[in-house]
Structure formats: structure tokens, C-alpha cells
């Protein structure tokens, strides 16, 4: 547990130091294209930027199942394993036995200490996992696997990937900066954590010899290795998108998104643009609920709750940094 907490703190500090200049980009962007919620929902794949503090944002890749590469046997096998593992975990979670409840509680505490940026990267499918949306010379849209895209002899144009962000609270440059830092820090951290989990697995084998006791450390390290691998694939895919512009990025806002973020964020531009400005929490439970409703991303609620818990705890550990005044009531409630 200590190792995981240190690793989480390492990534958070590394990511925080890398984004000190982010506040300078938190300015108005009046020229951003704003689309209706209906048009936003019609897109099969998109990136969503959610402000967390005045220096950090959460990136979420939302996609429909029809653009996933179902022809891959590896992907189908992975889905089968995930469903089977979920059933086993649910069975353990519902067990009335006291030692099973203790195991579930302990594992949940460990998972709650993993960095929230991992969830962000895991939402981005690996390049082999998602189909390429392209148009041919006849302007016909097609969905191709990565191998088909690479072998194509005809000219293909990748369909743009939209990045939705609250344009009244941040700029395109600030979002691009965060995307770049997310993939760089993510590749460095998750590659290291993947190897640590794999190296630790053999040490759990003696537990298998103990009758009636499940190899919980082995199962946990296996899951953590898988999670770090998925985050690493997401970081690599994000780097490919940024470096090769395949697909190219287009920046948009959703009607109503900027307004709810601006209402919550009462920090002045001069405060945010100051090089020595303090980091302040923007995302809270109330704003989170409004964001997931407007953008229809209810599946992200538990992840964003984890973001709020971790950021609130991190900011409180620094005496010179206090949560944003508009969130003080939430902090006081949490303490009680």
C-alpha cells in the first residue's frame, strides 16, 4: 500500500510541476465554435476537457461501441476476461463473510489511492482497439482497422476528432498543453508501474500454496498490471494523435457547458494569469453533477468523485493553498 501511495504522489507531483504554467492559458476564447448538445452527442468519438483546478484538467475519451475493433480476437478475449472478473468481484463484494468484506474494503482503499490521471488515460483506447474514421476521394466515410489504414493504396482523409472544452474558461492552447503533458507523464509513470507489478507477481506465488486463502495480492497485482498497460496504450495513442495529427483535432464548445463552468469559477483573469498564482479547486460535487448532466457522461461520475477527493486532499496538504471559496462549504461538510 505504501508503494502505491508513493507512486500516486509521484505522478501527481510530476504532473503538477509540469503544469505550473497552465494558469497563464486560462483566458477567454470567444472565437471557439459552439455546437448544440444534439450535434455533440451525434459524434461517435470525442475528447472532453473538464477543469479540475486552475492548473489541471481531466481528459475523457467518449466513444460509441460501434467504432471499436470487434474483429480482433485479442479485444474479444479481453472483454470476456473483464466480464468474468467483474462477476467474481461482484460475488466477493456481496459475500456476507467478514474476511471477504475486509478484503473488499482494503482493495477499494488501495484503488482509491491510484492517481486519477490513470482513469483519464484508460478512457483513451489503444490505437489497435479503435477503428479509423476516414473519407475516401468520393467523400464516403469508412471505418478501417489500423492495419487496413496502413495498407490502403487509395488516398484517405482522417475524420477530425473533436475536443470539447469550456471556451470561456480555457483556451485551445491550454488544452493542447495538458494533452501533451498527460501523455508524456503517463508514459513515464505507467511503464514503470507496469514493470513493478509484473516483477512483484512471482512473489505472491507462495500464497497459492496456502489452502482456503485466495491469492488476493496476486489478483491485485495482475489487475494493476492490466490497468497500467491500458493507461500506457492510451498515452501512446494520445501521443500519436498529437504528433501525427491522425486524426486531426478540432476544438469545440457545447451549448451551456462554458456557462456552468464560468458560474462556478469566480477567479479573476488577473489572479489566474499571475505566474505565482495559487492553485485553486474549481471542480466540486455540484459542478460535477451539472457537467455530467449537460454532457451526458453519467458513467464518469465515480471517476470525477475520485478526482475531487484526491485534489481536495492534495491541496489541503499545502498550507499556502486553500480550496476555492465557492467550495469551502463542501470542504467543511467533508471534514464533518
TrEMBL record:
GO cellular component: mitochondrial inner membrane
Disordered: region residues: 313-336
Biological processes annotated in GO: potassium ion transport; proton transmembrane transport
UniProt key word Nucleus: no
Keyword Transmembrane recorded: yes
Comp. bias regions, Basic and acidic residues: 326-336
Signal peptide, first to last residue: none
InterPro entries: Mit_KHE1 (IPR018786)
Keywords assigned by UniProt, alphabetized: Membrane, Transmembrane, Transmembrane helix
Transmembrane segments: 194-213
Protein name per its UniProtKB record: Uncharacterized protein
Amino acid at each position: 500500500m505504501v508503494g502505491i501511495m508513493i507512486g500516486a504522489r509521484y505522478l501527481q507531483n510530476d504532473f503538477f510541476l509540469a503544469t505550473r504554467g497552465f494558469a497563464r492559458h486560462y483566458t477567454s476564447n470567444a472565437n471557439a465554435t459552439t455546437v448544440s448538445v444534439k450535434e455533440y452527442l451525434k459524434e461517435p468519438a470525442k475528447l472532453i476537457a473538464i477543469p479540475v483546478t486552475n492548473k489541471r484538467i481531466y481528459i475523457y475519451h467518449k466513444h460509441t461501441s460501434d467504432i471499436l475493433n470487434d474483429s480482433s480476437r485479442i479485444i474479444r478475449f479481453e472483454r470476456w476476461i473483464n466480464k468474468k472478473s467483474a462477476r467474481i468481484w461482484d460475488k466477493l463484494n456481496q459475500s456476507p463473510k467478514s474476511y471477504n468484506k475486509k478484503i473488499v474494503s482494503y482493495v477499494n482503499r488501495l484503488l482509491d489511492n491510484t492517481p486519477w490521471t490513470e482513469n483519464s488515460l484508460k478512457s483513451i483506447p489503444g490505437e489497435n482497439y479503435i477503428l479509423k474514421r476516414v473519407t475516401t476521394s468520393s467523400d464516403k466515410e469508412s471505418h478501417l482497422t489500423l492495419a487496413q489504414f496502413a495498407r490502403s493504396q487509395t488516398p484517405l482523409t482522417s475524420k477530425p476528432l473533436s475536443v470539447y472544452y469550456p471556451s470561456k474558461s480555457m483556451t485551445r492552447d491550454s488544452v493542447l498543453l495538458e494533452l501533451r503533458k498527460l501523455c508524456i507523464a503517463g508514459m513515464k509513470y505507467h511503464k514503470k508501474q507496469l514493470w513493478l507489478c509484473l516483477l512483484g507477481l512471482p512473489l505472491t506465488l507462495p500464497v497459492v500454496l496456502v489452502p482456503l486463502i485466495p491469492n488476493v495480492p496476486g489478483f491485485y497485482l495482475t489487475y494493476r498490471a492490466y490497468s497500467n498497460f491500458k493507461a500506457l496504450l492510451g498515452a501512446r495513442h494520445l501521443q500519436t494523435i498529437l504528433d501525427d495529427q491522425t486524426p486531426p483535432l478540432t476544438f469545440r464548445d457545447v451549448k451551456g457547458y462554458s456557462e456552468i463552468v464560468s458560474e462556478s469559477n469566480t477567479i479573476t483573469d488577473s489572479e489566474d494569469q499571475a505566474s505565482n498564482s495559487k492553485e485553486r479547486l474549481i471542480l466540486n460535487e455540484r459542478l460535477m453533477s451539472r457537467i455530467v448532466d449537460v454532457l451526458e457522461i453519467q458513467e464518469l461520475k465515480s471517476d470525477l468523485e475520485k478526482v475531487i477527493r484526491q485534489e481536495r486532499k492534495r491541496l489541503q496538504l499545502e498550507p499556502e493553498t486553500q480550496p476555492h471559496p465557492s467550495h469551502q462549504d463542501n470542504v467543511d461538510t467533508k471534514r464533518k
